[in-house]
Amino acid sequence: MKLFTYEAWGVPSADFFDISTTFVTSHFVSPLVLALIRAVLCVYTFTTIIVSYSWLASNTATIGLKDVNIGSYEIQQSEHAIGQSFSFFTFLTFWSLGFYFLVSSLHTFMFAFRNRTWLHDWPKILRLMHSVYYSCVTSMPFLVTIVFWGTMNSGWPAGRFEQWMNLSVHGLNSVFAIVEIVLSATKAPPFSYLSIVLLLLSAYLGLAYLTRYTQGFYVYEWMNPAHGNVSIILHVLGYAAGMITIFFLVSSTIRLRNMLARQLSQRRDTDIQEKGVKLDDASDTWSSDVSMCRPQTSRRNDGSIV
């Protein structure tokens, strides 16, 4: 298998993509229920973003942060934070979740009502992008949650808005990813996708320093060379190692989910067959073919037929 072919990146050479409809079906719920769940998560995500931006437009949020080698400090966020949010990995990931659930819910609704989806007709490059998109939204939110609650959070904020925002963008983001992993029937992503995920992380690092150059602030304090270049290198390597670990854990979870789903399906089929046999045994009908033989006639001595 050549590296620079669509087959090597999980896109079949056949014209019909996702022939088993794994992106729009679930092992546990119907396509319509799956579409509704994705739509609800999409609505909540975008509602969170809209409400947050609306609140920040006229209020100021106080966020307490720290890092493994940096003491606690506070940042003030107000209307200027709306534009700056597009430089934060946390908000970029949250926006990505919203758009993923928007697109996937539309695909799933279409499949539920028409038994076909746009995924089947898209060019191969868009099919590949959708598959990679799925891999990103089921892995990157965990990195956000682990890093924030494990190394950056310096305490529970006092304001209700800050509390809700922290739970939404640093907690529910991973819950949404878990829902997608558990409910969808997708196959485990090819390991080649890991290179794209790491490439996106590297591109974000460039975006963060571009923000420093154009807007004059460090998105995350650990990026400041004042804390030492060694600290920056260790952070980058640590996040890369964490992303690799998360990718393999998610991939293994998807494989385990599919294996359990197959076992449950086989057990269900076996139970149905056993119940069918018991029903036949308890009824007056034959469960096997019965051949009917026409009785032969005989004649009496007087010539009459009996």
Q: Can you put this structure into words, describing what you see?
A:
With 306 residues, the protein is mainly alpha-helical. It has one domain (18-268). The protein has helices at residues 31-56, 80-84, 89-114, 124-137, 140-152, 160-183, 193-215, 229-282; strands spanning 61-67, 70-77. Strands 1-2 form a two-stranded antiparallel ribbon. A hairpin with a 2-residue loop joins strand 1 and strand 2 (70-77). The longest helix is centred in the C-terminal third of the chain and has 54 residues, at 229-282. The chain is globular, with a radius of gyration of 29 Å. The protein starts with 30 loop residues before the first helix and ends in a 24-residue tail after the last helix. The model is unreliable at 297-301 (pLDDT under 50).
Radius of gyration: 29 Å
This entry's quaternary arrangement is single chain
Alpha-carbon distance between the two ends: 79 Å
- How much helix, percentage-wise, in residues? 55-70%
The major pleated sheet works out as:
2 strands, antiparallel
Using DSSP, what is the number of strands? 2
Number of helices: 8
Q: How many domains would you count in the coordinates?
A: 1
Order of helices and strands: HEEHHHHHHH
- Give the strand order of the largest sheet, numbering strands 1, 2, ... along the chain: 1-2
Task: Point out poorly predicted stretches.
Answer: 297-301
**Whole-number average pLDDT?**
87
The 3D shape can be described as globular
Secondary structure category: mainly alpha
Proportion of strand residues? under 5%
